[in-house]
Design goal:
four-stranded mixed sheet; 2 helices; binds S-adenosylmethionine
Length: 82
């Protein structure tokens, strides 16, 4: 199973999914966020503590993908599982 989360924030929802849904050894997750302020540090701290970091790819979205520049994108808090 592959999971994509856009707008991962501190990673709480991601970590719940890793513990309860994405439990197969081959399951992987990709997370994207603008990570403003020190959010990326908090997210990575939570992910490292979880022990699931090896299953997760983290991408920092460029500021040009902010809603101010791309008002036609509304995908925050969406969960796609396929
Ligand atoms: C409400 S929080 C998401 C909460 C998270 N999905 C959860 O369930 O715990 C919204 C997140 O979207 C991120 N965000 C806002 N605009 C974004 C964009 N254009 N691209 C990627 N992430 C974005 C914010 O930085 C924030 O971390």
């Amino acid at each position: 199973m592959t999971y994509l989360e856009v707008g991962v924030f501190e990673g709480r929802a991601l970590l719940w999914l890793l513990e309860n849904i994405l439990t197969h050894p081959t399951a992987r997750a990709t997370c994207i966020d603008l990570f403003p302020y020190n959010l990326e540090q908090r997210f990575r701290h939570n992910l490292d503590l979880s022990g699931y970091a090896s299953k997760v790819t983290v991408m920092k979205a460029p500021p040009t993908l902010s809603s101010e520049n791309c008002p036609w994108i509304l995908l925050i808090s969406s969960i796609l599982i396929y």
